[in-house]
Amino acid sequence: MLFSSSVFLFLFLPLVLLIYYGPLRKFRQGQNVFLLLASLGFYAWGEPWFVLVMIGSILANYCFGLWVDHNKRRGRSCRAPILLVVLANLGILFVFKYLMFTLSILNGLGAHFVIPVIELPIGISFFTFQALSYVLDVHRDRGQVQRSPLKVGLYISFFPQLIAGPIVKYETVAHQIDHRKESWEDFSAGCARFVVGLGKKVLLSNQLALIADRAYGMAGDGLTTSFAWLGAVAYILQLYNDFSGYSDMAIGLGRMFGFHFLENF
What we know:
Elements: H1 6-21, H2 28-46, H3 51-73, H4 79-108, H5 124-139, H6 149-157, H7 170-173, H8 176-179, H9 184-217, H10 225-256
């Protein structure tokens, strides 16, 4: 589900806001559980099976966080859990993003591996690095360990920054999970920021993509030097406005729910 899609703009987001500020307005724990379920539903909309990968990542890193906290309280070394959490999270990325590529390279060198077809879960880099940030920030005393897996899940899967970032460090939002304060000023500023990001995505990035696609589609077929340069510049601006727009929308959506994410563009 994309932020610019009709389903998100006219169904998902209004419904989530209505429930969040309606029956759950004065029930913080209920709001957190609801946002977690909404975020998992948001991800499952486009990735119905890969949501299980995310849930597995949440539970694994929740346990790693408890392990690190347990060792710290007893004065023990955290080297083992930290090493394992890094290997586990980077291992997930390797399997889904680089395993097929690595096997194909090895086969080109003479090996005979069977290359499996592995689909790439959308946003896996973002939620994997956020999960890793949780455990590392607990280790560095930059955030308090969460005793509830639901709160770890909310941090990792919160839908505004789930698909395209920005990557939010745990220390940035650790206190906000239970103690954020919503206000009309934040909500209105969040709406304005979201609209700006939506404009960058729909009015700039998507239109620049038409020029870039046309230029790259003409390669070797009557493409002039001037149009090649135009296509290259359009592609650069397309990428910038795409990521910048999604970051604006994510920051704006977060402020609608009382979360303050750091700027990254």
